[in-house]
Write a structure and sequence with these properties.
Helices cover 54% and strands 5% of the residues. The chain is built from 15 helices and six strands. The protein is globular.
C-alpha cells in the first residue's frame, strides 16, 4: 500500500511540474530515437552474452555454452570433468536487468538495446533532480541536466547497446540516486545500499563509501559554536552512539553487496577473491599490459596521457575525425567538467565530493585497460563523472556566465559527435 501511495504522490508531483515532465519526454525521445538509429546502423546482431547468461541462470547455470559465445574477449575457460566451461569475467549486476526478458525469447536479439536504453533513459531523467539539488536553480538547472544526460558519455554508452557498457550505465544511475539521497533524507542504509549496488556493477565505486561514510559521521559532530552549513567547528564532540547507528546502517548493506560478489566469484571460479579479470582471455597487446599488473603504477602515465591528451586522427571519408580507440581526452569529450575545479574547498560537501572523485579515479588510472578499448571517450572515467557533475552544479551557484554555457555546449557537441561516429564509422 505504501508503494502505491508513493507512486500516486510522485504522479501528482510530476503533473504539477511541467518542466520535469517535458524533460522526461525529451530524454526518452532523444535516447530512444538515437538508440533506434544506432541499432539499424549495427546491422545483424544476435543474442548477447548477458541475455544468454540470464537464460542460463534460470536453468541453474552460471556459465555460457560454446554456441552462445559471440566473442572470446574476457572469457574465462574452466576445465571440469564434464568438459570445459566458459564464464564471462563480469560482475553480477549487469545480468540482472535481463532476467525479466527471459520468458520472451522473441525479444532476446533486441535485449542489448532494450536494457541499455531503459537504464540510460532513467539515468538521464535523474540528471534534472540532481541539478536541482546541487545547482543554483532557474535556467541553470536545465543546462546542468543537459550536461548530465547529453554532455557526458552516458549518452554514447547507452545508445551503443553493448553489454560491455552496461555496468557503467548501472553505476551512473545508482550514483545519481546516491547523490540525490544525500541532499534529501541522507539515510545511511539507503546510501550504503546504493553505493553497494553501484559497486556490484563497478567494484571501484565501493571506495566512495570512505568519503560518504566520513560525511555521514560528520553529521553527528556537535559543537556550541555557530558555523556555516557543511563546515566543521574548531572544537567539537562526537556522538558515539549515533555514530555507531550510522556505521551499522551504512555498513550492513554495503558489506552484503561485497559478500554477494564474493559468492558469485566462488560459484564460478571456486574462490571469493578471483574476479576472472586476471585470468580471462584478452588480446595480446592487452595481455602484455596485464602482465605488468592488473592495477599498477606503470599504467598511470599512459592512462593520464590518454585522459588529458587523447585526440583525433583524420580520414578522407565521413565522419572525417577519427577518435582514438584507446581513450579520448576529457578536453575533447566533456570539457564542462573542468568547471568543478572552481568550487570552494572550505565546504564539507565539496570535500566529500572531491574525495569521491579521487578514490574512484585512483583504480581507474592504475588499471591496465586504458580508457576502454574501441570506445568513444574515456569510458572508465564514468566511475567518477557523476561526482564531477555534482561539483559543477555547486560551482555554478557562484558563477553561471557565457564561459560556463559555452563549455556545456561544447560537451554536448563532442558527445553528439561520438554518436555520429558510432553510427557511421
Amino acid at each position: 500500500m505504501r508503494v502505491f501511495d508513493w507512486a500516486r504522490a510522485r504522479a501528482v508531483q510530476l503533473r504539477n511540474d511541467p518542466g520535469a515532465l517535458a524533460w522526461m519526454v525529451l530524454v526518452a525521445f532523444a535516447y530512444g530515437a538515437a538508440t533506434f538509429v544506432r541499432s539499424q546502423a549495427a546491422g545483424e546482431f544476435g543474442t548477447d552474452h548477458m541475455m544468454s547468461l540470464a537464460g542460463n541462470l534460470f536453468a541453474g547455470r552460471s556459465d555460457l555454452a560454446m554456441s552462445q559465445l559471440t566473442t572470446i574477449n574476457d572469457i574465462v575457460t574452466v576445465s571440469a570433468a564434464t568438459g570445459d566451461r566458459y564464464y564471462q569475467a563480469f560482475s553480477l549486476l549487469p545480468t540482472i536487468p535481463y532476467l525479466p526478458l527471459v520468458p520472451f525469447p522473441a525479444l532476446w536479439p533486441l535485449s542489448r538495446f532494450l536494457v541499455s536504453g531503459t537504464l540510460g533513459i532513467v539515468a538521464g531523467w535523474l540528471a534534472l533532480p540532481l541539478a536541482r539539488r546541487y545547482g543554483p536553480g532557474g535556467a541553470a538547472q536545465y543546462w546542468l541536466a543537459a550536461l548530465g544526460a547529453f554532455g557526458t558519455l552516458l549518452f554514447t554508452l547507452t545508445i551503443d547497446g553493448d553489454f560491455y557498457y552496461l555496468a557503467h550505465l548501472e553505476a551512473v544511475l545508482l550514483t545519481f540516486l546516491a547523490l540525490i539521497e544525500w541532499k534529501d533524507r541522507r539515510r545511511p542504509w539507503v546510501l550504503g545500499l546504493l553505493i553497494g549496488l553501484a559497486g556490484l556493477a563497478r567494484p571501484t565505486l565501493w571506495l566512495v563509501a570512505i568519503p560518504f561514510g566520513l560525511g555521514l559521521l560528520a553529521d553527528v559532530v556537535h559543537s556550541d559554536e555557530t558555523v556555516e552549513a557543511d563546515e566543521l567547528p574548531a572544537s567539537y564532540r562526537f556522538d558515539v552512539r549515533a555514530g555507531l547507528r550510522i556505521a551499522v546502517g551504512f555498513g550492513i548493506p554495503l558489506l552484503a553487496t561485497v559478500a554477494a560478489t564474493g559468492w558469485w566469484d566462488w560459484v564460478r571460479f571456486g574462490s571469493v577473491t578471483e574476479t576472472g579479470y586476471g585470468i580471462a582471455w584478452i588480446t595480446p597487446p592487452l595481455e602484455a599490459l596485464r602482465a605488468q599488473g592488473l592495477f599498477s603504477i606503470s599504467h598511470v602515465p599512459t592512462n593520464l596521457a590518454l585522459f588529458i591528451g587523447g585526440g583525433y586522427g583524420v580520414r578522407n571519408t565521413f565522419p572525417w575525425l577519427v577518435p582514438s580507440n584507446q581513450g579520448q581526452s576529457i578536453l575533447l569529450t566533456m570539457p564542462a567538467l573542468l568547471i568543478a575545479f572552481a568550487v570552494p574547498m572550505r565546504e564539507r560537501l565539496n570535500k566529500m565530493l572531491w574525495g569521491a572523485v579521487i578514490v574512484a579515479a585512483i583504480p581507474v588510472f592504475l588499471y591496465y585497460g586504458g580508457g576502454g578499448a574501441n570506445t568513444y571517450g574515456y569510458r572508465y572515467a564514468m566511475d567518477f563523472v557523476p561526482f564531477l557533475v555534482a561539483l559543477v552544479a555547486v560551482a555554478l551557484k557562484d558563477r553561471f556566465g557565457n564561459l560556463e554555457k559555452a563549455l556545456v555546449v561544447l560537451s554536448v557537441g563532442f558527445v553528439c559527435y561520438g554518436y555520429v561516429w558510432q553510427c557511421f564509422k
